[in-house]
Amino acid sequence: MYDMTVIGGGPAGITAAVIALNSRMETLIIAERWGGQTTYGMELEDTEGREVITGETLLDSFRRQLDYLDFARHFDTVTRVVPEEGHFVIHTADDDRFEALTLVIATGAKPQRLNVPGETLLAGRGLSYSAASHAGLFLGKDVAVVGNGRRAQWATASLARKAHRVYLLAPEPLVPTPLAQKLNKMDTVEVLEGATVQQVVGAKFVEGVVAAMPDGQSREIPVKGVFVKLTRTPNSALVREWVDCDSRGHILVDTHCATSWPGAFAAGDVTVVSEQVLVHVGEGAKAALSAYHYLLMQ
């Protein structure tokens, strides 16, 4: 039986596993692949090399440690997690079964895609799903944000401090917030409610978007960046029946990353935290140390 099992191979999960191993806990991390926001590099036409998100160097060293310690990692899909008295039982798609005294859930969240021509081709070439990671690369450029909720509004406000002009393409009316009112008054922001993206334009890098407007006309907007900030779905289905979640499915945790179930901890996008990778790194470390302290008290 493991002291701790981590589910998820993103920044929070990788960090939790390494911290646990360094604390001499018998640890296993189960993931389909290494991924999460660390895969969202950004290459732009007027920058040399591949710009990556802050924290990538640190995470690379963590991944290398896990790749070397092959006994501590298992690439597979977790299909079921069953809490039992004093421990957890984890089942995978390959019919493997693991038991652990503590659990760290770092399964992330699934971003809603545009599902339009150009999105897949230009992802990482001007199109991003994380403003927190990539907004700083678009200083003085024209960019578009797609979405109408709070995340889209925060991304627009952040980009308005860096970009030349920001177009907020909101498929639905903006969620009413104080920030929404402020965005409508900003000279550098154009809010286009009822605008639906039909295509992301560009041969090698983002050059613009084509949007269907409420009047039935199509409008091509020249931009160098597109930030997709549509609804994200937390990947909490594995534990939602026995761990408390909010109305959107985010796992609820306390300041120590502890869930409502003793011995179960959660970190990263599956909870409600910033999209910044270094925050996920910190939350993963906190979850692992909290699990370690939990075991010491048993």
What does this structure look like?
With 298 residues, the chain is of the alpha/beta class. 23% of the residues lie in helices and 28% in strands. The chain has two domains: 2-110 and 232-296, FAD/NAD(P)-binding domain; 113-228, FAD/NAD(P)-binding domain (3-Layer(bba) Sandwich). Strands 1, 2, 3, 4, 5, 6 and 17 form a seven-stranded mixed beta sheet that branches. Helix 1 (11-22) packs across helix 2 and helix 1 (11-22) packs parallel to helix 7. The protein is elongated.
Question: Any descriptors?
Answer:
298 residues; elongated; FAD/NAD(P)-binding domain; alpha/beta; seven-stranded mixed beta sheet; 7 helices; single chain; 2 domains
List low-pLDDT spans: 49-53
Listing every helix as H and every strand as E from the N terminus to the C terminus, the arrangement reads EHEHEEEEEHEHEHEHEEEEEEEH
**SS-derived structural category:** alpha/beta
Q: Could you tell me the strand content as a percent range?
A: 25-35%
What is the CATH class designation of the largest domain? Alpha Beta
Fraction of helical residues: 10-25%
Q: Which superfamily, in CATH terms, is the homologous superfamily of the largest domain? A: FAD/NAD(P)-binding domain
Short synopsis of the structure:
It contains seven helices and 17 strands. The protein has 298 residues and is α/β, with parallel strands linked by helices.
Describe the protein's topology:
Blueprint (H helix, E strand, L loop, with lengths): L1 E6 L3 H12 L4 E5 L24 H13 L4 E3 L2 E7 L2 E6 L4 E9 L3 E3 L7 H4 L4 E2 L2 H4 L7 E5 L3 H11 L4 E6 L7 H6 L5 E5 L2 E6 L6 E5 L5 E5 L2 E4 L3 E3 L29 E3 L10 H20 L2
Parallel strand pairs: 1-2, 1-6, 2-3, 6-17, 8-15, 9-10, 9-15, 10-11
Antiparallel strand pairs: 4-5, 5-6, 7-16, 12-13, 13-14
Helix pairs in contact: 1-2, 1-7
